[in-house]
């Protein structure tokens, strides 16, 4: 009997020691440093008429695009990358093909945390388009007014980034270089996109750049992404601000079908001395990607884009 009691006591002691050891084991942080959020879209539209008294022209159109946000966040390091590409065309009977969307927008920004929600940062951005643009509704027989990297805008600067949560990011760069490229020789004349002389291919400006991204989840399956920027050139007419706003309203019908409404506003004295507006509406296929979890305090803020 004593031998049995001794064996039971040893077994219980070993089990208790094992449980204590397991409890004291360090907790492994499984949060990934990289998070990838993106959307791939293909929007289609079509209209057909036959003996229709009201009139109309047969047409078919498409618009394809990608919108990705790749973020690395670990310790005091924050590195955000944005890739926005889009192109679309519409073919109307008797008129021909016209582009309806054309955008290249790439940016990267690295920050090192210096205080709560504040980072000292530096980054680059590039904006341009894929194909030529023409007056008279992109009529290829009309005067050409733009092309790939004509204009193209490259920004590089340092400053500070404020990001209280995953839904809002603001970057202020009091030292920012802005290069305007006009690589199409047909558009290299004085006054085109601010060029000083004929056959110039670029223009350098130095000033302040401020950008902000604000994501709003309006309700389930409806989200709005707001992007704004302002630039002031210290070297020449700092009062002539370059202003831009972009809004994307995404209304998801199911996992693969959604409706997108976009609105773009811009004012650039060197382009045209009027406010520019572009609006698109499309219904089609959309595939979202959401991998990894950010390390921000408000992790639930990623709900603006779910599968």
How many structural domains can be distinguished in the coordinates?
1
**Largest β sheet strand count, sense and barrel closure:** 12 strands, antiparallel, barrel
Q: Low-confidence stretches at least 5 residues in length (pLDDT < 50)?
A: 1-12, 14-23, 295-307
- Please report the first level of CATH classification, the CATH class: Mainly Beta
Strand order of the largest sheet: 1-2-3-4-5-8-9-10-11-12-13-14
InterPro entries: DUF3078 (IPR021428)
Keywords: Signal
Protein name: DUF3078 domain-containing protein
Pfam family, one: DUF3078
Structure description:
There is one protein chain. The protein has 307 residues and is mainly beta. It has one domain (33-295): Beta Barrel (Outer membrane phospholipase (ompla), Chain C), CATH 2.40.230. Helices cover 8% and strands 60% of the residues. It contains 2 helices and 14 strands, in the order H-E-E-E-E-E-E-H-E-E-E-E-E-E-E-E. It has a 12-stranded antiparallel beta barrel. The N and C termini lie far apart (64 Å). Keywords: Signal.
């Amino acid at each position: 009997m004593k031998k049995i009691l001794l064996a039971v006591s040893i077994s219980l002691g070993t089990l208790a020691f094992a449980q204590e050891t397991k409890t004291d084991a360090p907790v492994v942080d499984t949060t990934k440093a990289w998070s990838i959020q993106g959307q791939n879209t293909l929007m289609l539209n079509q209209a057909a008429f036959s003996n229709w008294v009201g009139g109309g022209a047969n047409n078919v159109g498409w618009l394809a695009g990608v919108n990705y946000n790749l973020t690395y966040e670990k310790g005091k390091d924050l590195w955000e990358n944005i890739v926005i590409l889009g192109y679309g065309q519409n073919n109307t009977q008797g008129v021909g093909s016209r582009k309806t969307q054309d955008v290249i927008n790439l940016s990267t920004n690295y920050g090192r945390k210096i205080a709560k929600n504040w980072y000292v940062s530096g980054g680059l951005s590039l904006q341009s388009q894929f194909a030529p643009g023409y007056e008279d509704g992109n009529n290829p027989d009309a005067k050409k007014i733009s092309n790939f990297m004509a204009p193209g805008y490259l920004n590089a600067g340092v400053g500070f980034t404020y990001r209280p949560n995953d839904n809002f990011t603001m970057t202020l760069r009091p030292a920012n270089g802005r290069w305007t490229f006009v690589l199409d020789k047909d558009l290299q004349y004085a006054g085109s996109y601010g060029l000083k002389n004929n056959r110039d291919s670029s223009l350098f400006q130095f000033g302040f750049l401020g950008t902000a991204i604000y994501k709003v989840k309006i309700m389930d399956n409806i989200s709005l992404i707001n992007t704004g920027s302002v630039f002031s050139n210290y070297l020449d007419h700092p009062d002539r601000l370059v202003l831009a706003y972009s809004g994307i309203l995404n209304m998801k019908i199911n996992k693969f079908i959604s409706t997108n409404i976009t609105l773009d506003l811009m004012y650039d004295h060197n382009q045209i001395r009027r406010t520019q507006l572009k609006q698109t509406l499309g219904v089609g296929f959309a595939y979202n990607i959401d991998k990894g979890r950010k390390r921000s305090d408000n992790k639930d803020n990623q709900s603006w884009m779910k599968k």
